[in-house]
Amino acid sequence: METIRSGDLKTILHSKRANLYYLEHCRVLVNGGRVEYVTEQGKASLYWNIPIANTTTVLLGTGTSVTQAAMRELAKAGVLVGFCGGGGTPLFSSTEFEVEIAWLSPQSEYRPTEYLQHWVRFWFDEALRLHAAKEFQQTRLTRLRAQWASTRRQTVASGFEVDLSALDALVARSLPAVAVAVDHTALLTEEARLTKQLYKLAGEATRHGEFTRSQRGQGIDAANQFLDHGNYLAYGLAATATWVLGVPHGLAVLHGKTRRGGLVFDVADLVKDAVILPQAFISAMRGDTETEFRQACIEALTRSESLDFMIDTVKDVALRMGRLAQERT
Hints:
8 strands, 9 helices, four-stranded mixed sheet
């Protein structure tokens, strides 16, 4: 069998890559130059190819192992790898003593530094960091309105009949609140208030009934479990977006005081409420399995070009805030 080297693969921009994998009860290895995952069926071993040149993120769940050779090829192709629990949550690294976001990022001595240089120009100024956080939140709100309107058009036949006038009212109220927030705490408080109202809207649109968001990993109803699961798909894309641009995950603008990888949370927020939240309630209403929900989320994230959106937003904020910091000096 002819061996395929990762260097021979045609490069696909991360923003255009189509695949995000969650794997469980399998081995990831290199076979004939290809990265594959192996499952057992009786006495037979089934080999499935992972097209690494067209993959952004691999989540390794319960009962998985990965070889050194596979990690080498994944790193060469720029694929982020994260170890997680069953169903994709919680996400953890085996080198950590506590459960938190920790990605095994591909390493390279030649990662771009353009956006990192712009980012650090403003990041050490708390006022500018707050300004950047507000821009993230304002962009999130604009994306939210557009995506929920699109979701309603696509799924109204299946019962997702969200009240867009009520959504408009929530966004109209939140935008000025974000603009006048005096510090990061006020911004986080407004974010939490809006998200709580979005849960109510989505619950009403799917006739879910009263909904209470549970702590991570403790959800007993389908909507809570799907939210946990789907959010980690968004975290995978966010980690990819920041890695592609060379901005470390610790240089957060909003969640930095409570999260070591806070920038992943900041960037994931751009699409979590817009894409994952409505899909969680839709899938709960339909009685989807975790696999069906995960596939629906991946399709929605791909269809909405969420990774493109994340990358473009981080680039835009880095360049504009970096220039603003330079002007101040």
